[in-house]
């Protein structure tokens, strides 16, 4: 059994407080996640990610970020270019399928080139949700489009680009957030679509990328599957759909436990997520009182969850990349900017 606890947590600022240092040393989280509040200068980011790893004694401890492009991009210019949305890349696919796929792969390879030198080795990308007309804009232009096949093609290219650059991809939000009529950050979405339609449409991109190393759950109730619990805390959805029908056998992490879609206190949310079959829980906001409650209810990584974590991290061990030089990356960036007309 691993000494690491099966949780990914955030911190409050650009450097760790004394309380955070003590907490991370004691609780030994498996991974960490950064948000805009944590992003300072290049040196500050490197210092923060190095400090995380020093405290848990693992040089390859995963540090996650949401670096999609568009409105969900935590590191912006001048540290990284301001990248386009998934929707824009999907429009390239509509004009020329090969160019669209190329754009998704190259943008992810550039994300990896931006992130890995900062000590960030995991990106919560690609978004495999397929939005429906009238759904809430929480996904919106983050999605590649409305066709399951296009989303699958573009998502695979995006994941491959990250892997080529030594960064771990996380497919999200399994088994699909595209029909949510409310933002799960603020309320619990209820989807009443029949199972057959979900299978043909919403689940399809996840089925095609089921061999990816990690996935993040959707805080969405699928009434046709489990009318009482969102996917994150539903044993039925995880066993029968995510692990069964979709066939995903990678490391399954929750979406953020502090989102208001979930009910109960933080210990209850944590226990419900593990009881449903999640491998790792995610807590993002860096609030110490909440993190302590999550940690108290979180087990150490063991069994299948530990095996899945080890398989995922094998992709990014020692920062292995495809060997491109700085000049190669610069040329790739110029070509990408020409392709999608993104300013440097």
Q: Can you walk me through this structure?
A:
- By secondary structure, the chain is α/β, with parallel strands linked by helices.
- The protein contains twelve helices and 13 strands.
- It has helices at residues 18-27, 42-56, 86-95, 97-115, 148-164, 195-200, 204-208, 235-245, 266-276, 288-296, 303-314, 326-340, and strands at residues 5-9, 29-34, 63-65, 67-69, 72-73, 122-123, 168-169, 171-174, 190-191, 214-217, 221-222, 251-256, 280-283.
- The strands form three sheets. A nine-stranded parallel beta sheet has the order 7-6-3-2-1-13-12-10-8. Strands 4-5 form a two-stranded antiparallel ribbon.
- The longest helix is centred in the first third of the chain and has 19 residues, at 97-115.
- It is globular.
- The protein starts with a strand and ends with a helix.
- The relative contact order is 0.14.
Looking at this protein, list some descriptive labels.
344 residues; alpha/beta; nine-stranded parallel sheet; two-stranded antiparallel sheet; 12 helices; 41% helix; globular
Quick structural gist:
The chain is an alpha/beta fold and 344 residues long. The chain contains twelve helices and 13 strands. Helix 1 links the parallel strand 1 (5-9) and strand 2 (29-34).
